[in-house]
Amino acid sequence: MNTTSHRLAAALLASASLVTLAGCASSRSGNVYSRDQARQEMTVRLGVVESVREVQMEGTHSGAGTLAGGAIGGVAGSNIGGGNGQIVGAIVGAVAGAVAGNAIENRATGKTGLEITVRLDHGGMVAIVQEADEYFAAGQRVRVLSGRGQSRVTH
Fold it and tell me: Which UniProt keywords apply (predicted)?
């Protein structure tokens, strides 16, 4: 395989990995329901927002970033040296690419979230983390919807 072919293969792998990563992202928004959550009963509790804190939600670790990074790093590393140097370069490149690809996937799919603490009308407090796609402020009346082990805060 010549240098141009290596570069083309690396570019194709990078493009494929970006498409794969985009498809892996799932929503943790208070406004998005999965198919399995449709037509399921949820408990509704009313309360007042006590505090809101911005947090970072970890990205996915599907393995797609690791795989794509390893493949790209292996191809790039194999262009280093000649003979056994190419083999060593491919191995080192694959390992470094896999580590970098995993980190890139995590950063690309991570999201800003909100930790919303709510004082419930009937006593008690709950804190729920969800995507920061809706505005909440202390003192605001909200609903806490819970069911099947998941909860969300809505207006």
Answer: Lipoprotein, Membrane, Palmitate, Signal
